[in-house]
Amino acid sequence: MTDLATRTAFPEQLQPAEDTIASRPGDPGLIALPLIIAGGFGLGVTNTGILDVPAAAVPILLSATSIGLLIATLWSAALGQNVNATVYGTFFGFYGSYAVLSLGLTHDWFGIDAADAGGTVALWLTSWLVTIGLLTVLLLRLPWTYPVLLLVVDLALAALLIGNLTASPGATHAGGWLVFVFVGFVVYFYAAALWAETGGRTLPLGRPLVG
């Protein structure tokens, strides 16, 4: 998310009208969003089977996406953009824990038997489905594009969980294509944020679903 979303939902966080571009605080979303796109694209490619290398996205997630989201989380919190901080922090945990899970299972960091790897992945997927599902509901007061984006993530996680539990490549691939839909939403948010930052008109993000 960008501070644009927070300002839309909570007008009291708008900057004074006399502020100039030079005096405006930075936008953590301009760091977070492109790195979310890169990490999400990598996950989409691997989960759809376009590239049949499950851990191929880990270098991006661990070295770029996770670090960028951590910076954006701390920066948002410092600016008092608490909604943005919780969203960025949640996705930092999601991407970072995926990288650790993938590397840990591959290199036996956690002493988990190969026979239990599937259950471990299922637990990881379920934990994040519950967490991001809760976030989806709690952000219904934001413009509709934000909870819908999170709903897409929920559906992707559900599809991946079904694929994991049933060993269904079709469900896993469906989850991967839903990840691409998620990436499409984030591309729009990034374009909206950067377009406004460079002096363009504000792109529409939709009305809140709940007043």
From TrEMBL:
It is a multi-pass membrane protein. It holds the Pfam family Gpr1_Fun34_YaaH. One of its GO terms (molecular function) is acetate transmembrane transporter activity. Its main location: membrane. The keyword Cytoplasm does not apply. This is GPR1/FUN34/yaaH family protein. Keywords: Membrane, Transmembrane, Transmembrane helix. Belongs to the acetate uptake transporter (AceTr) (TC 2.A.96) family. It comes from Mycolicibacterium neoaurum. The lineage of its organism: Bacteria, Bacillati, Actinomycetota, Actinomycetes, Mycobacteriales. GO terms for cellular component: plasma membrane.
